[in-house]
Amino acid sequence: MLKRMFLMLAVMLMFIAVLGLVKFQQIQTAIAKGAAFQPPPAAVTTIVAAQEAWPATLSAIGTMAAVQGVTVSADLFDAELRLAQTRRNELLAMVQLYRALGGGWQ
């Protein structure tokens, strides 16, 4: 059994050594090819720029992302909601003041 274990260990070490040698040769070949590599010339293209008219305003409800990466957010609803909540709080405060001063209903 001990002889079989040593034999298996020797076979595995040989297998690993062969794999290491093959990989070493592949890496050396890649390095040699990389040293002689000449990149292809860069392609250059041209385009004629034209002026376009953009609208001065953009009407939208909610949030949208423009094509150019600019994020446009319509906060009108939130502003109106805050205004309504503020007005409600003012009215509730006046009712509480009226009750505190002895007025009001039972």
User: Order of SSEs, N→C?
Assistant: HEEH
Structural class: mainly alpha
Task: From the alpha carbons, calculate the radius of gyration and give it in angstroms.
Answer: 39 Å
Shape: elongated
Characterise this structure:
- The chain is mainly alpha-helical and 106 residues long.
- Helices cover 56% and strands 6% of the residues.
- The chain has helices at 2-35, 76-100, and strands at 63-65, 71-73.
- A two-stranded antiparallel sheet has the order 1-2.
- A hairpin with a 5-residue loop joins strand 1 (63-65) and strand 2 (71-73).
Architecture blueprint of SSEs:
Blueprint: H1 2-35, E1 63-65, E2 71-73, H2 76-100
Antiparallel strand pairs: 1-2
Give a nutshell description of this structure.
The protein has 106 residues and is mainly alpha-helical.
List keywords for this structure.
2 helices, elongated, mainly alpha, 6% strand, 106 residues, two-stranded antiparallel sheet
